[in-house]
Amino acid sequence: MAPSIGQCAVGAAIAWLVAKDLLGHSRPFFAPIAVVVCIGVGLGQRLRRVVELVAGVSVGIGVGDLLVSWIGSGAWQIALVVAIAMATAVLLDRGSVIVLQAGSSAVLVATLLPPSGAGGFARMVDALVGGLVGLAAVALLPASPSALAQRYAKGMFSTLADSLRQIAEAIEQRDVRLAGEALEEARSSQTKVEEFLQALETSKEIATISPLHRHRRPTLEGYEKAAVPLDHALRNTRVLARRAIVALDGGSPLPPWLPGALRDLADASLMLRDELAAERPPDKVTKAVLEVASRQRSERWGFSADVMIAQLRSIIVDLLQASGAQREEALAALPPTDVHTHDADGQAPRDQEETRPPPAPPGTAPTKGA
Questions:
Q1: Which CATH topology does 145-355 take?
Q2: Residue ranges of region Disordered (predicted)?
Q3: How is residue 336 annotated by DSSP?
């Protein structure tokens, strides 16, 4: 949080000085407030925040000035002003910042800052100044976008690798409890996926705004290509773990090569993490995943084993796509099989939990998951 806190502190002071000393506004408190709202201390879309901030303040002040000049101030006047200001903001845009700023600005106008000449326009200018200073702070005092993406990607890769290894160990030891622990590990991944997607969007925004980090945009493309396939891989791993519990609990036979294949896929996922962080082409990852794919045979082991093999094939496709391959190329890399528990794309049926559409990076069309 240190970079964001520093940006907020420095930006708030500068915004106050600009609005007070350069523009001559006597109490420009909207300017430093706008900086803090714009930058925040979390991940998010700062360009959109600036637009929502200025629009929200403008709506709140406009509605507040208009109504308070007619009906005065008081309890019922505050209720009416806030309701109309927030309703107007919702009609314009459902973003949380614009609605909250419209309501809070209306409260200030109705209580502490009654209308006075051009005061409303000056407050709107203060909000705009604060928003622009906030963007400048992000551009000139930025966190490293590649470091931000790497930090949040580690959680996804680690969860995927740990889950695959736990499933492999559970199969080797025929231990249902270990398979259950692997399922719980995989279930914790969705929060990490959402945090990574938000961090990736923030990283792209920093690389766009900041002249110091525009050269990092190609680095982020690798993470952007890998984001959705990795989410699919984690979802498929959850299904794999659940089927492992069923297979082990029922004493179903499983292929002896399956634990080794799962461990090698875990190693490949960590290798992909390192290759993306080092900005190297993930050729070694592709080779390792293809080697796992080549081990499969067309023998039948029973329904549970067939479903697990189908999920393994789906994870292979996911990792190949995360390494940069097109979906058709990834599917073509799979050896033929006569197992019919999966569909035409090599995808096993999912239970209800896994049919939710995965989150896609903003600006990216939804992709069919393996």
A1: Methane Monooxygenase Hydroxylase; Chain G, domain 1 (1.20.58)
A2: 331-370
A3: P
Structure tokens at 139: 């551009």
Residue ranges per structural domain of the chain: 2-140, 145-355
Reduced 3-state DSSP string for 163-223: HHHHHHHHHHHCCHHHHHHHHHHHHCHHHHHHHHHHHHHHHHHHHHHCCCCHHHHHHHHHH
Q: What gap in Å lies between CA 169 and CA 163, rounded to an integer?
A: 10
Q: Is the dihedral of CA 30, 34, 36, 42 positive or negative?
A: positive
Instruction: Report whether 333 contacts 295 (CB < 8 A).
Output: no
Token representation of residue 336: 């033929």
Tens digit of pLDDT at every position of the chain (370 positions)? 677 788 888 889 999 999 888 888 888 888 888 888 777 645 556 667 667 777 887 788 778 877 877 887 788 888 998 899 889 888 887 777 788 888 888 887 777 766 555 566 777 788 788 878 877 776 666 566 677 778 888 888 989 999 999 999 999 999 899 899 888 888 887 888 888 888 787 777 777 766 665 656 667 778 888 889 999 999 999 999 999 999 998 888 888 899 999 999 999 999 999 998 888 888 889 999 988 888 776 677 788 888 898 899 999 999 999 998 888 888 888 877 654 444 333 443 443 334 344 444 444 444 433 3
Amino acid at 327: R
Classified as helix, coil or strand, 52 is helix
